[in-house]
Amino acid sequence: MPGGKGGGALYAEDYEADEYEDYMDDYDDQYDENDGPAASPQTPAKTVAKHPHKQKAKASAPAAAAGASALAQCLCDPPPLRPSGRPQRGAKKPAQPPAKLYPHAPPSAAPGSPIQPFAFDIPSPDDKVQQQQQRTGGAKPLSNHSSAVGRTPTQKNASSADGASTSAPNGTVADGAARPVDAVTEELDSMRLGSHAEASTSGGPPASAATRPRRPLHDYKLEADLLRMCQEADRAGQTGSTSPKPHLHLVILGHVDAGKSTLMGRLLHDLGLVDQKQVHRSKQAASQAGKASFAWAWLLDERPEERARGVTVDVAVSRFETPQRAVTLLDAPGHRDFVPNMIAGAAQADCALLLVDGSPGGFEAGFDSGQGSLGFGMGNSSGQTREHAQLARSLGIEQLAVVISKLDTCNYSQTRFEEIKAIMLPFLRQTGFRESSLQWLPAVGPSGENLVGPPTEPALASWWQGPSIADAINRFHAAEREIHKPLRMPIVEVFKGSRGALCISGKVESGAMKVGSPVVVIPTGEAGTIKTLEEDKQLVQMARAGDRVDVSLAGIDASMLTAGAVLCHPDWAVPLVTMVEVRVLVLDVEVPILRGQQVVLHAHAAREQGHVSAELYSDLRSLGRIALRDGGRTLAVGIITNLP
Ligand SMILES: Nc1nc2c(ncn2[C@@H]2O[C@H](COP(=O)(O)OP(=O)(O)OP(=O)(O)O)[C@@H](O)[C@H]2O)c(=O)[nH]1
Prior knowledge:
Layout: H1 19-34, E1 48-49, H2 52-59, H3 61-76, H4 125-135, E2 148-149, H5 181-190, H6 193-198, H7 208-211, H8 224-236, E3 247-254, H9 260-270, H10 276-288, H11 304-309, E4 316-321, E5 326-331, H12 339-347, E6 351-357, H13 362-367, H14 384-394, E7 399-405, H15 414-431, E8 438-443, H16 458-461, H17 469-475, E9 488-490, E10 493-496, E11 502-507, E12 512-514, E13 518-522, E14 526-535, E15 538-540, E16 542-544, E17 548-554, E18 566-568, E19 576-577, E20 579-586, E21 600-603, E22 606-608, E23 612-613, E24 625-630, E25 633-642
Bound molecules: guanosine-5'-triphosphate.
Guanosine-5'-triphosphate binds at residues 254, 256-262, 293-294, 297, 311-312, 333-335, 405-406, 408-409, 444-446.
């Protein structure tokens, strides 16, 4: 296997800043044009990894020059003081620091200086590497290829909401590298889900559905009756959903407290989907809890936990329509603890609104890379604006509207709007977004400025004549429905439905199903049939790619249903693998990703340290994208290039 013994290793080679865009474009373009893989699955997967300092160097030549001299100076000049507080031997007065390298240098920095004298009160970057190596048993830095292995029976990650770095019961994703291949293989065999499924009391089929050889996808043909139903739905312009308009799955992203839920609550109200009574109830509840400013947000954040903490925890789903679009809205949490939930939300989306807090200091807090002025990571203090944008792009979102909120806090300043745009645009380009797929607009959630019509506030109306939020949504294109591929519906939620039955919900990523269709749930291999299909609380007979549905199943042991599993066509089930080769882009990480390092692999709604049910990116993009996280941070994003 490429990547060495037992897998579980991630390899990286040099990566230049602009390569991210090329990397995404390469793949997207090549699949668009050829409908085939950019690199043969047999070809060892290439990994791209970027070095944060290289990225900075390429992003701006003057900054790079300044950075190089600053770094060199820092390394060559002894620090002015020793840890004891006494001067270093031979210490000389530091030269005048170069021009500001990092636009959001902490306020404590010396005027004009990006450099903080290192106080030796926190581990140095070298210390961090060493600590990490000790954690992973003397692991080595990586080079050149990528692969990740899942080894434990699939279970819903029982870790923190973060889902990061807690060990799965039977081991870790990536510790195979240090152990003999045979031992790992044996262990894998003994853990096959076959035994898991056979042990179930449901009387369902053995795990063969999960482990039988993969039938080529091109052999698949949509069943005649389903095809007819899809064609009828096309003609009628609907699939049982309430609207004939093109359907968008829109996710709302952004740093914690950027104003996502407030904006969406107010938007739903202004579009007539939330009545005065609901608003009144929400306002009352919020003021009674001493959180009056969250009244609009509480229209979406309904859970007691969310209201108590004042943050969104899980993705809230609602539906609304604009004049030209039917929209399934996914309000994602912004808090860093809930990034895994954000990933599950973004994985279902075709387009996104990225909310950026325009208030003084708000943008800077959300956009902070946590890298410190010299580009070395200084902890987990980074803002989620960057991480959300990077994850969104790597999860396949190409259309993005950047909404600069809270401008009421700075007199609706156009200068502030333009300043934020000027900083964000190069970053988003570098993240892989095409400039032509980006929209920029201001909005103020609580007062409803620029949500469904032009601004009424003179200070904003004087300079903004561009699109409102509703206009921006109308400009998004609906994704193509992939009905000619076998059924795939990743399970996002398992819940007791209004009719009493246990239901699963999620977005159909490919194929179609109707009431009575046979299905199999991967990874457990449980087989059954579709009992009911519900879309937007209405019973429907059929659901196809692009529909978000609630499904109840007959003949399936309910205990086998977990979020992250995939509902599949029984003859073309998603492959269940213990190892995937991935091509990854390493994000701004504090220390290199090391062989043996534990990571949590996120693939669509699944997060695993164990078995992975995965698709090749070339077969189905939405299920072939992955993110690797550890310690509450996203380390790398990528695509599955091979299922060895
Ligand atoms: N002044 C002002 N305050 C706003 C605006 N939008 C939101 N807020 C306030 O910001 C706070 C956070 O708003 P939320 O809507 O909960 O933010 P969020 O992004 O949904 O937060 P999470 O989902 O927890 O990440 C609330 O007190 C809102 O009233 C705005 O445009 N202007």
